[in-house]
């Protein structure tokens, strides 16, 4: 049984074309909503849709910035999920496994990179490169049988407190000096 929403759902040809370049297993419905939101913004700017399609269809070729207005907090909400716009569209069109904006670095040709805090943000996925997030070194944890209790700070503290039961000396300052 088909729902009423699916009977009347309409994906514009522009959204369908842009989804043709979608990478990997990005959630289909969410990606469609993200692209649909982008198309609405780009249609207001002359030549923006064409520039994005050019960038997506010719990955190795130079392309211009494709910008959208920066929101107050810098994030974009797509279907109850908020994210940074350049990360969202890099995830849709280039790296489906992208986790964070820390994995992206703008190319020198980008005039409106996200980090520049300008009124417009470039979402052209080919204006960003992916950087390896640093791998944390392994944490070495000694095995139980390698543990030497004589080196434990707790044991050393206990030995101090048993051997030297000193109470701190409290001094009072009076008119005559120290009492």
TrEMBL record:
Gene3D superfamilies: SMAD MH1 domain. It is found in: Cytoplasm; Nucleus. Residues 13-137 form the MH1 domain. GO terms for biological process: regulation of DNA-templated transcription. CDD domains: MH1_SMAD_1_5_9. It comes from the Eukaryota. Its main location: cytoplasm. One of its GO terms (molecular function) is DNA binding. The keyword Ligase does not apply. The keyword Aminoacyl-tRNA synthetase does not apply. InterPro entries: Dwarfin (IPR013790), MAD_homology1_Dwarfin-type (IPR003619), MAD_homology_MH1 (IPR013019), SMAD_MH1_sf (IPR036578). GO terms for cellular component: cytoplasm; nucleus; transcription regulator complex. Coiled coil: none annotated. Keywords: Cytoplasm, DNA-binding, Nucleus, Transcription, Transcription regulation. This is Madh5 protein. It comes from Mus musculus (Mouse).
